[in-house]
Specification:
Mean pLDDT: 85
Number of strands: 0
Low-confidence stretches: 158-168
Distance between the termini: 44 Å
Order of helices and strands: HHHHHHH
Strand content: under 5%
Oligomer: single chain
Shape: globular
Helix content: over 70%
Length: 168
């Protein structure tokens, strides 16, 4: 039931991203999705009832899928065609290499402090990471320079943007 619930949330996240018309503004989704994921983990960490855990799992699935898919989408959109394979191999290596290490650390934590506390603490870390990323995102330029180079936005839009004076 928990996996089905997480899958339903992931499906909703995929539909949400598929409904987008452009990659514009996706960096805000990249910043907000770990916040959603972290809140879901906190809910799961404090839950002592199966029915509550089932209700929280779609939040976790949505947050995880939106973060991973939107990051992947932004990377593949902005990377030059000739470099896409190399960049995606680094992305895959980072993801496939870090997940097992994080799982090992979570296992050690769970043995030391218990699984619920581990899930709760990791949810808090997700929220901290999301807030730090959002904070670093705000003073930056409204649109990455690659958006103009790829034709996603026109150069006039960057000039007219209120944040255009901030360096990327």
């Amino acid at each position: 039931m928990l996996f089905v619930a997480a899958g339903a949330g992931a499906l909703a996240g995929a539909a949400l991203l598929a409904a987008r018309e452009s990659v514009r503004g996706i960096e805000r989704w990249i910043a907000g999705a770990p916040l959603i994921f972290g809140l879901g983990l906190i809910g799961l960490g404090v839950s002592h009832w199966t029915w509550l855990s089932v209700l929280v799992m779609p939040v976790i699935g949505l947050g995880l899928l939106v973060q991973l898919a939107s990051s992947n989408t932004l990377i593949q959109t902005l990377v030059e065609d000739r470099m896409r394979g190399r960049v995606m191999s680094f992305y895959s290596m980072a993801f496939m290499g870090m997940v097992p290490l994080g799982s090992l650390l979570a296992g050690f934590m769970a043995r030391a402090i218990g699984a619920p506390a581990t899930v709760l603490i990791n949810g808090l870390w997700c929220i901290v990471g999301a807030l730090l990323f959002s904070w670093r995102l705000e003073p930056r330029q409204a649109h990455p320079p690659g958006y103009v180079r790829k034709g996603i936005i026109l150069s006039q839009e960057v000039i007219a943007s209120p944040d255009a004076s901030h360096p990327m």
